[in-house]
Design brief:
It holds the Pfam family Amidohydro_1. This is Dihydropyrimidinase. Residues 460-480 are annotated as: Disordered. This protein is an alpha/beta fold and 480 residues long. The chain has a domain at 58-380: TIM Barrel (Alpha-Beta Barrel), CATH 3.20.20. Helices cover 31% and strands 21% of the residues. An eight-stranded parallel β-sheet has the order 8-11-12-13-14-15-16-17. Strands 3-2-7-18-19-20-21 form a seven-stranded mixed β-sheet. A hairpin with a 2-residue loop joins strand 4 and strand 5. Helix 5 (168-181) crosses helix 8 (219-236). The protein binds N-(aminocarbonyl)-beta-alanine (URP) and zinc ion (2 copies). One zinc ion (ZN) is lined by residues 188, 243-244, 293.
């Protein structure tokens, strides 16, 4: 393992922006200083020229679905192609959702997810665990899940009826158990029962096109489910994280709950910040490329989401990467929008879109950017300060970023294992040039330099009251 000297760059953390060198030893940031040439020479460190570049902590993507069976097929990206694409995009840690099956031990599902990732991942990774039922067996297994496996976040789906959806009793009991263990509960917040009714009603009326995916999942029921989850978290005294928030109604519920002191956090995704429901109405079947749940919304919601990020009402950016090819996978829903596999490829572009649309367009600051794509995620999910920041003792997960380079997003040039890019043609300012994972190049001058299987599984820490990250009431009470 060679020591490295990252010289001449501008270091950006969630707190500061300053000119300094980094010395990396044994995969760890060993020293930060204005000029580390003497130390680097004494160490025989390899120089990495970062002059004129920004030096970011590697991105932490808290929401991915790799090698996941869903909608009658399996996601196009596995842990090899997905983590490689993530690295190209400046992400050095992913937390993936481990699915479970009712009646089957949680340990078996976790073992399956370890098999999917090990030997393939090129960056470090952790798992969240889906909870679909609560019974004595599940409750008996949870302490080991949290304390031995280091899986400190439990996911409950409030939608996808007859597939993943759990009822409110299950959600509430998961919250009670999670609270005792210092685990966070994550929710997909939509009212699955109402959606199920609306879908059947639309199909009976002969509405089969992709746009009906959006019309059968109105924003009001995302808001309803978000408020319900926040109320249950308040009652249970649990920590709640709402994934993929898309709309004003949900933001309002989160902001109101936070202003009451409820320990609730909200994530949004690049697709909801930049695309809108008109994409679902594109000619022919092309709208299928833009089928996510919750769906893309009317454009007016984008400004609400940006303002919520800026003011702290929403705190994190996940990719919700869940890729399906247009040919051969999305077309399972030809003639019935409800059979289109839900999800899209975003793992590679999450970091760059947020920089370009957020920082370069003046919507958020550089430090807020780092907080949303890396630091806050590491803190909330029990990885900080190992991940998510540039500090002495942290893993040397580093992105050397050219803030002025321009490029166009396209399926022709992306590295995700999928035949389209939902952001096709989007002009982007800023390029992750080189990416290091624990001090080793994964991407070097835009070329892959990593090795399959070098990514390590991350056991994450439970939270305690003293681990902080309590809601900021001032920011929370500001209205969107
Ligand atoms: N979001 C989506 O459409 N697909 C991935 C699964 C989920 O997060 O709900
Ligand atoms: Zn979801
Ligand atoms: Zn998801």
């Amino acid at each position: 393992m060679t020591s490295k000297w990252i010289k001449g760059g501008t270091i950006v953390t969630a707190a500061d922006t300053y000119r300094a060198d980094l010395l990396i030893k044994e995969g760890i940031i060993a020293k930060i200083g204005i000029d580390l040439s003497a130390e680097a020479e004494a160490e025989g460190a390899e120089a990495v020229d970062a002059a004129g570049k920004l030096v970011f902590p590697g991105g932490v993507d808290p929401h991915t679905h790799l090698d996941m069976p869903f909608g009658g097929t399996v996601t196009a990206d596995d842990f090899a192609t997905g983590t490689r694409a993530a690295a190209f995009g400046g992400t050095t840690t992913v937390i993936d959702f481990c699915l479970t099956t009712k009646g089957k031990p949680l340990a078996e599902s976790i073992a399956t997810w370890h098999r999917k990732a090990s030997g393939k991942a090129v960056i470090d990774y952790g798992f969240h665990l889906m909870i679909g039922e609560i019974n004595d067996e599940v409750l008996a297994e949870l302490p080991a899940v949290v304390n031995d496996e280091g899986i400190t976040s439990l996911k409950v789906f409030m939608a996808y009826k007859n597939v993943f959806q759990a009822d409110d009793g299950t959600l509430f009991r998961t919250m009670l158990a999670a609270k005792d263990l210092g685990a966070m509960v994550m929710v997909h917040a939509e009212n699955g029962d109402v959606i199920d009714f609306l879908i059947r009603q639309a199909l009976e009326a002969g509405h089969t096109d992709p746009i009906y995916h959006a019309r059968t999942r109105p924003s009001i029921i995302e808001g309803e489910a978000t408020g319900r989850a926040a109320n249950l978290a308040e009652l249970a005294g649990a920590r709640l994280y709402v994934v993929h928030v898309t709309c004003e109604e949900a933001v309002r519920q989160i902001a109101e709950a936070r202003s009451r002191g409820v320990d609730v956090w909200g994530e949004t995704c690049p697709q909801y910040l930049t695309l809108d429901e008109t994409y679902l109405a594109r000619p022919g079947f092309e709208g299928a490329k833009y089928v996510w749940s919750p769906p893309l919304r009317e454009q007016r919601h984008q400004e609400v989401l940006w303002n919520a990020l800026k003011s702290g009402q929403l705190q994190t950016i996940g990719s919700d990467h869940c890729s399906f090819n247009y040919d051969g996978q999305k077309d399972l829903g030809l003639g019935d929008f409800s059979k289109i596999p839900n999800g899209g490829p975003v793992i590679e572009d999450r970091f760059s879109i947020l920089y370009s649309e957020g920082v370069a367009k003046g919507r958020i600051t550089l430090n807020q950017f780092v907080e949303m794509v890396a630091t806050r995620n590491a803190k909330l999910f029990g990885l900080f300060p190992q991940k998510g920041t540039i500090a002495v003792g942290s893993d040397a997960d580093i992105v050397i970023f050219d803030p002025s380079a321009e490029r166009t997003l396209s399926a022709q040039s992306h590295h995700m294992n999928v035949d389209y890019n939902p952001f096709e043609g989007m002009s982007i300012t800023g390029v992750p040039l080189s990416v290091l994972s624990r001090g080793e190049y994964v991407i070097r001058d835009r070329q892959f330099a990593g090795e399959l299987g070098t990514g390590r599984y991350l056991k994450r820490s439970p939270y305690t009251a003293s681990s902080g990250e309590a809601p900021d009431r001032t920011a929370a009470s500001a209205k969107s």
